[in-house]
Amino acid sequence: MTYMTFNRCGHCQRLSPTWEQLAEMLNEDDSNIRIAKVDCTTDAKICSDQDVTGYPTLKFYKVGQEEGVRFKGTRDLPTLTNFINEQLRLSEDYDYDNDEAPKAVKHQESPLKELDDKNFDALIEKGKVFVKFYAPWCGHCQRLAPTWLDLAKAMEFDDGITVAKIDCTEYKGICSDHDVKGYPTLLWFENGQKVGKYSGDRTLEDLKEYVNRMSGDRPKPKEKRQKPGECKQPVIDMTADAFADEIKSGVTFVDFYSPWCGHCKRLAPTWEQLGKKYEDKEGVKIGKVDCTVTENREFCNEQEIEGFPSLFLYKDGQKISEYSGNRELEDLSDFVDKHLPQHDEL
């Protein structure tokens, strides 16, 4: 994603620190995303060719395409990351068979089924369904996308098998229910039950062989699909709608994050350890909020999230403090303990 700037532009200067944060989050070695900028005072021809008439102009470019998609939203970090998320999700629906610039495949014409919270249960309830759980920002998912589409095309005329995908940044609850902890996760369902997880090579031939093997008649699994709420999670996945109820009593320590953010990824295992430390402690909750999810985006703006991760502590429904110290387990737990009632000072 690129923004066209003019060095005396006030709007450009105000955007600059946010753009630097976005670059720090996404410009990592294992990422297929690059955040860049062009100074239109020194590269006027580039800006003219791209029809830049005002500053800053923000555009998203896909590999091999000269025409970018113009960003028109508010220039805060959650909105920018959500825009990138949407563009990457849309790129999953491109026809990779065309040697020229890819043309979008209409959902209704595609053999690859797009799942969401409205059709997921109904689709997996009957027959055999092979589902890719993915995140648009995930490089491995992006590399698998054309092969997964080819697999769907290969199975298009087999009425007993469906190849599908679901975006875990949009439908986190479904992915959490099925214990999805990394991307892509490829799960096989039969008549509403999860009966297999694919872990082999991701070539079309290997995936086809797995489908052929799994589609044979086998005894039905004894274990039932795990239902939401059956397993207690040490870190609560919070949403805007339920946030007020979650924090209304006791101490709640919340990580506002973005899945793309390198600092967030490095904090994640420590945050899980923190959640486990307090999971049996009365009056203490450890939570997290994904600010790239559509329903959380405006809420994160209201919470004045200016960078990721942002760590806020709430007490009895009120925001008390923002944590800015070291992100080691001991330092984080010391911060929580300091805010607990009846804390004894040494």
TrEMBL record:
Domain Thioredoxin, chain residue ranges per copy: 1-89, 101-192, 193-341
GO molecular function: protein disulfide isomerase activity
Alphabetized UniProt keyword annotations: Redox-active center, Repeat, Signal
Any single GO BP term: protein folding
Keyword DNA damage among UniProt keywords: no
InterPro entries to which the protein is assigned, alphabetical: PDI (IPR051063), PDI_thioredoxin-like_dom (IPR005788), Thioredoxin-like_sf (IPR036249), Thioredoxin_CS (IPR017937), Thioredoxin_domain (IPR013766)
UniProt keyword annotation of Repeat present: yes
One GO CC annotation: endoplasmic reticulum
Family membership: Belongs to the protein disulfide isomerase family.
Annotated protein name in UniProt: Thioredoxin domain-containing protein
Record organism: Ceutorhynchus assimilis
